[in-house]
Design goal:
Elements: E1 10-17, E2 21-28, E3 41-47, E4 56-61, E5 73-77, E6 102-106, E7 117-122, E8 128-134, E9 144-151, H1 168-171, E10 189-191, E11 194-197, E12 208-214, E13 241-249, E14 262-263, E15 268-273, E16 281-286, E17 292-298, E18 301-307, E19 319-323, E20 328-329, E21 334-336
Length: 338
């Protein structure tokens, strides 16, 4: 390439645990000076079920401090296994999926554990970005595949895998002999293949690096403090969210709403405050002809969604849903599955 982005140049990454935390270090060999004035987003992707589709995405972005902080740190989870297209790790025709659809941790706010993930800039030769998270956040899983990203171009966590969102011509190529030279829309992205952690690779694992077994490294000497951060001086802004879905008839009997499945129209759907069976009624609505329902501009929080009885058993009968600040949850479906 003719353009080089030194703060995106990941040459090496290491991983290491202690009793509570997992630490990942991204070494930025392109930086000539130990400056934490970075403009990119630095991400760690974990594949817990070894299927080539990431399950957890951790992000640290500017401003990164010299000491451990939750500022700029976010964690996403993919709840419906749709990261990547038909072939994980390979380019599929451009498509749109919701990928990492659940924001689990947002800089210490809107989370059950404000101490769950941290990051910092580490001066040295080479400089590095470090991300730390609690084992408990991923269910204490100690067997997974992992890889890292640096990104100040596309910067869309909900678009992973990036190679499924651009044509070859749009993405470009780093090779001068290629008719699509130079790299275009993904020029400001760097990422690695994946290593295994906690098990011996067979060689058939998706996205595996050559010699991709990870031996845990020594625990870093400086660790995040094991107590929650002090309360913020101001509340994080809270924005209304939306919630919707379908009450459907499962025509092909696969217990999933597909194109062509009918719906129950005219049903009342009730939204109650708190986990099911829920408390006070917040709102009600009526399903349309195709069973569609939608609640707009509701305050962040936990709710119970309850459709009225259509005369046949629905699965599930109700659902507990957490709506986060500014978030749209639009896949809470209830189906008659004969």
């Amino acid at each position: 390439m003719d353009v080089f982005f030194p703060d995106l140049d990941i040459r090496e990454a290491k991983i290491g645990p202690d009793e509570t935390w997992m630490f990942v270090t991204l070494y930025l060999y392109g930086l000539r000076e130990a400056s934490n004035a970075l403009e990119g987003a630095y991400r760690l992707e974990l594949d817990l079920d070894i299927d080539g589709r990431g399950d957890w995405l951790f992000e640290a972005r500017s401003p990164l401090m010299d000491t451990w902080s939750v500022e700029g740190v976010r964690v996403w989870e993919d709840t419906d296994n749709d990261v990547g297209g038909e072939k994980p790790c390979y380019a599929d025709p451009p498509q749109v999926e919701n990928s990492y659809d659940r924001l689990v941790f947002d800089q210490g706010y809107n989370t059950d554990d404000p101490d769950a993930a941290w990051a910092r800039f580490k001066a040295g030769t080479p400089p590095a970005v470090q991300i730390a998270f609690k084992y408990s956040l991923i269910g204490n899983d100690d067997r997974f595949m992992w890889g890292v990203w640096a990104d100040q171009g596309v910067d869309q966590p909900q678009w992973y895998d990036y190679n499924d969102h651009f044509t070859y011509e749009e993405a470009g190529s780093p090779f001068r002999s290629n008719r699509y030279y130079p790299i275009k829309l993904i020029a400001e992205v760097d990422n690695t293949c994946r290593w295994t952690y906690g098990f011996e690779p067979t060689g058939d694992e998706p996205c595996l690096c050559a010699g991709g077994k990870t031996t845990p490294t020594a625990t870093p000497t400086a660790t995040p403090r094991k107590t929650a951060p002090p309360p913020p001086t101001t509340e994080a802004p809270q924005y209304p969210g939306d919630l919707g879905g379908y009450v459907f008839k499962d025509m092909n009997k696969n217990c999933t709403r597909d194109e062509g499945d009918g719906g129950f129209g005219g049903l009342t759907v009730t939204l109650r405050k708190g986990a099911c069976p829920g408390g006070a009624v917040v709102a009600t609505t009526t399903t349309g002809a195709w069973g569609r329902y939608f609640f707009s501009a509701i305050q962040p929080g936990r709710y119970c969604v309850i459709p009225s009885d259509p005369g046949v058993p629905l699965t599930p009968r109700n659902a507990t849903v957490r709506v986060r600040s500014g978030m749209t949850v639009d896949n809470i479906n209830f189906g008659y599955c004969p």
